[in-house]
Write a structure and sequence with these properties.
Radius of gyration: 38 Å
Order of helices and strands: HHH
Keywords: Collagen, Membrane, Transmembrane, Transmembrane helix
Strand content: under 5%
Largest sheet: none
Protein name: Collagen alpha-1(XXV) chain
GO cellular component, one term: collagen trimer
């Protein structure tokens, strides 16, 4: 309380209380953006760490594949068995070889 509020001036006391209340609002209005920016900064750092880990995993997989130590993933075609696919490839290879032979004899 100020000296005017002690002397019994009610208007001064109300002004002092309203200034204190608005100061609290200013404090809260400054705190929310600070907290929000802090949270967003932490999320960005966490995302960067996640990307770094993922990139490292991909680099390790590529290195393993390049050196021949990596696991190869084979995806099966849903409509064909492996034997059917092998026979289709063999037929196509035979056709292409026949075309090359015919072209080399005629050319």
């Amino acid at each position: 309380m100020t000296a005017a509020a002690k002397k019994g001036d009610p208007r001064r006391a109300e002004d002092t209380e309203s200034k204190a209340a608005s100061g609290g609002q200013r404090c809260c209005s400054r705190t929310f953006p600070n907290v929000l920016s802090c949270i967003l900064s932490l999320l960005c750092v966490a995302y960067c760490i996640l990307l770094s880990v993922r990139t490292s995993e991909f680099q390790d997989r590529v290195f393993a594949l390049e050196t021949g130590k990596g696991e190869l993933y084979y995806y099966r075609a849903p409509a064909f068995s492996v034997d059917q696919l092998n026979s289709m490839v063999q037929e196509r290879v035979d056709e292409l070889l026949a075309q090359v032979r015919n072209h080399s004899f005629h050319g």
